[in-house]
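Exercise 7b. Backbone tokens:
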């Protein structure tokens, strides 16, 4: 009976994580589709601005969930008695795998664009790049949390939470100066771009995903994942996630309050891009999304016999990879910058149906090939935890 209850709890945990990752995919679709296809007067109204505002959510969600899932995997491997070095190696290699896939993705985009893109796009720091490096860093954080070789599970979790929060705080605190007064100005712009997203343009670009501040979302997710593995959180999962949601409300209020203060800490600070106050707001929103996903999957209609969002959430890397080419690439299903709202919305529906179909096909194939899996993915499509693999 105990085994059955644990299996049921694991299933729910996977469902709300996958559903939230699928929701991030949907938010990403609408942002990319309208940005790529809307043209003329359709780009001048408020509709596109609201669409782009919704586009501020997917990247923090993907990074937060990557950290959350790494925490679950690390906790599982620790529970199985795996050594700290082996756990760190496992996580670092997965992060390296995603980073290499990010580089491969840029090469694919360059060649499919028939060399019309500038070669510097090959070195662009995109969301997959920062997810891969963040997972590598999280592997090192978890190893550092176990540096004294403690076998006490509670102590390891607390150490991991503290280390994750400290790293997130350091990243957020250093972001404004690294984007302005402390900008490194290295000759190797492609390397500096991982710090502040300068690319080859000399100044930080808001459309890139450097480690500062983006990796901080992954570190917060790592802390949240370990927090929900504490003994009291396992016993009272709904209450624990309710507290996470309450903390999200507090962070939103704190971020807005800090922004309203007349005293500014930094000489140069951009609320929307580098401000610690906006980071708090976005983390708070992500935490509320986590709560909403859990409630929807446990008591709502988020987990029916078939859920498109859960299907896409299980392989979000594949979905991301393919939809980019169908929206922004040479295989775009609609002419770029030439559509009205109605036409672009029709294209969005086509992309949603196509990506759901792709996800279902991939997931069913994986089941037939490898059997029924219990998976917690650091990034959809790259399974970190499977039956029989710790």
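Sequence design result:
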């Amino acid at each position: 009976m105990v085994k059955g209850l644990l299996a049921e709890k694991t299933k729910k945990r996977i469902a709300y994580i996958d559903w939230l990752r699928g929701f991030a995919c949907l938010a990403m679709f609408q942002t990319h589709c309208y940005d790529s296809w809307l043209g003329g007067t359709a780009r001048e109204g408020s509709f596109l601005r609201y669409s782009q505002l919704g586009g501020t959510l997917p990247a923090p969600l993907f990074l937060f969930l990557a950290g959350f899932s790494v925490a679950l995997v690390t906790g599982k491997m620790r529970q199985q008695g795996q050594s700290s070095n082996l756990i760190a190696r496992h996580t670092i290699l997965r992060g390296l795998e995603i980073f290499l896939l990010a580089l491969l993705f840029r090469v694919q985009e360059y060649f499919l664009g028939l060399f019309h893109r500038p070669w510097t796009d090959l070195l662009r720091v995109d969301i997959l790049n920062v997810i891969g490096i963040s997972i590598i860093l999280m592997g090192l954080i978890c190893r550092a949390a176990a540096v004294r070789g403690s076998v006490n599970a509670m102590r390891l979790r607390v150490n991991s939470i503290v280390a994750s929060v400290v790293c997130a705080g350091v990243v957020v605190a250093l972001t404004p100066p690294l984007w302005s007064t402390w900008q490194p100005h290295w000759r190797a712009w492609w390397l500096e771009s991982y710090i502040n997203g300068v690319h080859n343009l000399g100044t930080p670009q808001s459309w890139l995903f450097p480690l500062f501040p983006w990796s901080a979302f992954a570190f917060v997710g790592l802390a949240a994942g370990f927090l929900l593995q504490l003994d009291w959180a396992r016993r009272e999962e709904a209450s624990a996630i309710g507290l996470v949601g309450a903390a999200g409300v507090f962070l939103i209020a704190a971020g807005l309050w800090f922004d309203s203060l007349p005293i500014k800490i930094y000489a140069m600070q951009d609320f929307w891009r580098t401000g610690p106050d906006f980071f708090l707001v976005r983390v708070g929103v992500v935490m509320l999304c986590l709560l909403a996903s859990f409630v929807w999957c446990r008591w709502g209609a988020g987990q029916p016999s078939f859920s498109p969002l859960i299907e896409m959430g299980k392989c979000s890397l594949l979905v991301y990879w393919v939809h980019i080419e169908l929206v922004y690439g040479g295989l775009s299903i609609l002419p770029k910058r030439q559509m009205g709202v109605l036409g672009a919305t029709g294209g969005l529906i086509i992309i949603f149906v196509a990506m759901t179909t792709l996800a279902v096909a991939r997931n069913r194939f994986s089941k037939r090939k490898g059997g029924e899996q219990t998976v917690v993915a650091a990034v959809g499509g790259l399974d970190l935890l499977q039956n029989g693999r710790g």
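Instructor comment: The chain has two domains: 1-54+306-326+340-390, 56-299. Strands lie at 376-379, 382-385.
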